[in-house]
Amino acid sequence: MNLLIVTHTVGRNDGQGRVNYEVVQAALAAGHSVTLLSTKVDETLSQHPRVTVVRVPASRVPTRLLQYQMFALRAAAWIRAHRHEFDVVQVNGFIAWTESDVNAIHFVHTGWYKSGYYPFHLTGGMYAAYQLLFTRLNAWCERWAFRHARVLVPVSEKVSSELVSLGMSRDKIRVIHNGVDNVEFSPGLSLTSQRERFKLPEDPFMLLFAGDLRNARKNLDTVLRALVKCPSNVHLAVAGGVANSPYPAMAAALGVADRVHFVGMIRDMPTLMRCADAFVFPSRYEAMSLVLLEALASALPVITVHTTGGAEVVTEECGIVLDDPDNETSLAKAISLIASDPLRAREMGQAAQALAATLSWQTMAARYLALFEDIAKTRKAARRNARVRQETVSVKT
User: Fold this and answer.
1) Glycosyl transferase family domain location, by residue (predicted)?
2) Which end of the chain is more exposed for a tag (fewer CB within 10 A), N or C?
3) Is domain 2-179+361-393 given the CATH code 3.40.50.2000 in the classification?
């Protein structure tokens, strides 16, 4: 099978890029050939003899809005010229002005806009106006891309529901959850002594939060307010860049600065997770969070909310899923419940790890490959039947 994947980035250190990286690895292991139409590709993949990289250079136009459109136009032109060379064309969301066989959907801008938590409005100044334009235009482009795909692959049931609300047929939807590396992320031995490496105190019950700290979507503000209502032995480690972040000042204003530890951008997330006792992630909108799956694989009890993609896989045996992302009282109760019962926390962690074992990258990639192979077989059969019909017509004439 000759596969074309169209995406901005293919690599291990990018959310969507990691999904595509694992799909490519699985395709190569199965003996297939892969062409990557992309701006940035992992070097180990680009050197593989059955990988062809067609680089779409990063545009120098001034905004992401225009950069994405330039990529979409360039990618579409290349695909139209080479479409006949491939058995399957897979795109990711809106990325090219062209039809596709498979569209893997990692985020739905209409879902974010209509979630009730979208923060940008026209009354908020020029930056907010730009963000609003960015979201609305992306939403329109996505709907076009979804309509022009043969099969839609949302990364969660949450995203699947959003697609149906946009008028997409359930018959063309195949949910494939994201995966996790269960070797890289695993509990291992107790590493509380490693807390010093991250300047974390050894004794407290340590919550972990990880995400973008520049805006409110990940919902660290509610976690900080909940921490005020938790016992004093509960601390919070926060992974993410603090530049231009309002949350260090917010922690100080709430009087919990001594219990909140901003550890910055962390490359060694597996070790940091081994230093934690539980993972808290009440994101106001998420399609399918990789970091949540990584926490499960690290045997951490997970406290999350229904608005977070990935919450749908969390069972009561391994975590607590709340209804309202902004209810700090409910969040504080959930945190306190786990923090006060070490045996329960340990049992939940074991259940979390067992669940994560069913959500490996290999399982995810195998489902993508099965879909690709089915499409390729159907296309080959259609071509064969077309040739037979043409030959029959030629004989009759």
Assistant:
1) 194-353
2) C
3) yes
